[in-house]
Each structure stands twice: as C-alpha cells, then as structure tokens.
Amino acid sequence: MKIQKFSIKKYRAIEEIDFNLNYSINPIIGINEAGKTSILKAILAFDCTRDKYNNGEHLDFKNKYHINEKTCTISAHFNFDKSELKELIEYLKLSTDSVDYKIINSFTKETIFKLNRNLSTETKEYSLEIDSLNEKVLEKFKRFTLQKLPYILYFDDFADRVPEEINFPTDYITNKKLGRSKDRDWQEIIEEIFKRADTEDFEDNESPLISYLKVTNKDTKEDILSDVEDTLNKEIINEWKRIKKSGTKLADDSEKLELVISNEGNKFSFKVKDKSNQDKKRTFDISERSKGFQWFFNYMIKLKFNPNYKGKSENSLFLLDEPGSYLHSSAQSELLKELHTVSSKNTIIYCTHSQYLLNPELIKLGSIKIAEKKDSVASLKNFGEYKTKNDRGALSPIYQALNLNFTNDFIGKIIITEGITDFYFFGMLHKHTKLIKNNVKIIPSSGASQSTTLLSVTIAFSDNFLLLLDNDKAGKSAEKNYKKEFGDSIANHFHFYKDSTDDFVLEDFMCKIDQKKLLELTKSDDLKRAMSFLYYDYKDLQNEFFSKLSKETLRNLESTLERINTL
Prior knowledge:
- The chain is an alpha/beta fold.
- The chain is 38% helix and 20% strand.
- Helix 12 (420-432) packs across helix 16 (527-536).
- The longest helix has 28 residues, at 218-245.
- The chain is globular, with a radius of gyration of 29 Å.
C-alpha cells in the first residue's frame, strides 16, 4: 500500500491543505508559527493506533481563533499493488458473478482510493469513498485497508526522554494486553526487541516477551536477556560505532558503549555500560549520557524497532519535528545522510529551520514545501511555486544550503558570477557544451556587492579573473565601490552582460522559447528556481536543454562568452 497524498481540512489553523508525497523525503520550512508542526500532527491524527500518543494532544483539531466548530477530516489518497489487490479479493470472498466482484476486479495498481478520518465525531470513525459498492462489502474493504496502512512514527524534536522504568500491566502475561498507559510506545518497543532477538528459548506459539516472563529459572532468564542485548547492540551500538568513525560531532560520546536491558518482575529499563576508562565497565542511565547519544538512541531504537514490523522494516511514515535541533551543524549533516538512507524504503516528512538539513546533493529542491500563515490561516506551497515579496525569512535556509557545497578553488582562470543562478547557468553551459574553454573555473558570489572577499583571494591566487555583473543599478553600484576598494584597474576585470543603458540581467539571455522549455522541464513557474531545479534535481535533462539552446539565446550570449574565453 502506498499513500500518494494527504488532504487536511479544518485542522487548527489549516483550512485545507493537500500534501503530495511525490518524494520519499519531504522537508517543510517556514518561519515560526507558520503551521509546520500542525501539518505533522494532522497526519499523525489520521492513524488511530497513535491516538494515545502524548495523551492524544494531536487529536485536538479546533482552531482557537474561530468560535464556531468545523468538521475536521484527514484523508489519505492511496493505491494497492497487484498482490494486495489479489489479497483483497480473497479477503472479501465475493462471488465471481456478483456486481461487487466485477467492480473490485476492475481496480488496478494505478487506481487511487480515498480513506477519510473524521476527527469531529466522538468515535473519530473512518470512511472509504468508493461508489456503487454494497455497504457490507465497503465496510470489509475499509477493514482490509486499515490493516494495510503504513505505520506512522512521530518524533517531537527528540526532546522526549527514555523512561527510567517501563512498566507492564500486572496481568500482562495472562491477558496479553498492554493497556493505555503513558509508556505504551515503549512497551511496544520492548515487545518488538524480544520478537527480533536471536534466541532459541522462545515458544513459537506465543509472544517472545510473554515466553520470557513465564521463565522461572534465573540462569535461563539471564541467557535470554543476553541474547536480547546482543540484538540491541547489533542494531544500535554497531550503528553508533559506524557514525563515530565518520568523525561527526553527532557521535559526541565514547565508542566503548554497550546497551543493557534489565528486568525485575514486570519492569524493564535501558542502561548503558561505558568501558572507556581502562575497559572498566560503569553503568549509566541513558539520560546521563551526552545529548548526541540520547538523541541517537531515541531515534535509532524507534526506527529499528518499529512495533508494526511485518517481516521487513519499510513503507513506514516518519514525521520529524525539528530533527537535530540540539545538534552541531556537522552532526545535522550526518543526520541528513541517515535520513536519506532511511528514505530509500520509507517516507519521511520533517520540519526544519536548518540549512544543514536541506543539502541539495541529498534533498530534491522540488520536494521542499513552505508553510505560511496569513490572517491566522496556514497554507502550504511547493518551493517552485512559492512567491511572496518578503520571502527572505522563510526561504533563507534554502539560500544558505545552496551555497554550502561549492569548493572555491582560486587557482587558474576564474569566473566569479554575481549570484547563484548565474553560477548554475554558466556551470551547466560549461559542462554540456564547448562554448566555454575547459581551463575556466566558475565560482558563485552571493550578490553584486558581496564579492569583496572573493576578489581579494582571486587577485592573490588566480592567473586571471572576471567578475560577471548584471547591467542594473546594483551592478553599477558594485563597480563603483570595488574601484574604491581595489583601485580603478579592477574595472578591467568586470564584464556587464550587455553594454546598454537598459537594465539587462542573466534571465534576459534566454529567449521566450528557451524560458518556456526550462519551466516545463522543471515543472516550475519561476525562472530562477527552475535553473536551480535543473542543476540539482534534473541532472539527466541538463544536456538536452543546453545542447539545444536556440540561436537567439546563443546570439545573446556571444559577447559574454567571447569575454570569458579571452581570459
């Protein structure tokens, strides 16, 4: 089962939002109080198995700015694969000559269904939208669908602490029920750890944890716990050691750690043994370790020991609110690599203010969504469609991320572009055509007036250099200021895109046909963002676009290319 889209209606400040899951990893950015967390909590509220999370706080959908209560629904638009459709037919046990069978047998893996959850009713019931099906068949179809729903995990900025003790009900062995205590999530995790433990002492016909709790022999219980701890350390500590070796500041704790799970009656607790001091073992609570390790343990144990494990850890939905907010920038970069790995088999949605969690080498720019609130109503826009006169605050993490990944080598013949869009354009032109000589290196600046440092280094180390400037007010003002800083001769190293009294910027190079083609290729309606999408998200289409530039565009480029190639 694959969820393609969530629709959120009347949830807190959200009037109506569609969240398309076109990508496996989906960042949400925006200024504070823009509604980012509300989007995550609304999606969490779709899953009835998570209703007891944090005392059900996320089920409170009312908008505090509105007096009149409105009907709140969270909907999932999904499809089944071929095997699931076959399983559905078997589950429904329909006669092959019935109308219902013919309807359901016509469904394909491309058929999109819609499951709604109404939070406004006391029972918060689900409804499935399929026309013409018998009511009883539709009800069974709904039950089948609920069994197939991906598991949803919510991480609230990883500030939640591991409980010192995780208590199971006193009658757990007999009735096998966990109840609805505040530790329910952790009880499920312990059940899952025991289920996955590589031990020969569990009965095949009942829960491994219950089998363990029934054991009376002390030595046998210790042996089982030892097997469980081996599983924990294999899944958690081995991963910790791998990250530790990478040198990231995420691993800001000892490498010689060992996880221990202790048990007394119906109580369990996690501990850490530290062997970093001359291999002497000392025991600590998880909360006594570094922030990085606490974060790592909390994240990894919930990731690795997904309670809805069905033979393979995949197709889950992870909702992360400000992941890495307590971590150093290098640790956040390492975290993004981990999320990227997890997203190969799962879907991840996370809110962030951090540029380090938006690295365009790992995150598709087209996947980034911007949350915004106007007049107490929250909305969501795709980055490629987002337009506002005052977007600097909301989009600043993206702008910062786009400048993170360029190693500025100042040796040789250097071209400094006024901005990042110019860098994308000339960089791809350089790579996919022979219009720019191979020995030229292109470096981005961050604005017409922001090149002082780059010019200083370039003057000192380059063989020759050129600063490309828009022929606009900002470009001419920058030329004047650089002459004051470096002397009049620096002007010999400037090139304005067009010798004209009219303003002329990079976008003006492309004729209307090429502009339209670029927007269509990148599915964007903004030319500058379309260029960044082509650079990062559509690398396989770069050659097609630049090798087929129109003659008009090439004529517009002639003087600039001639100036570059005469360095």
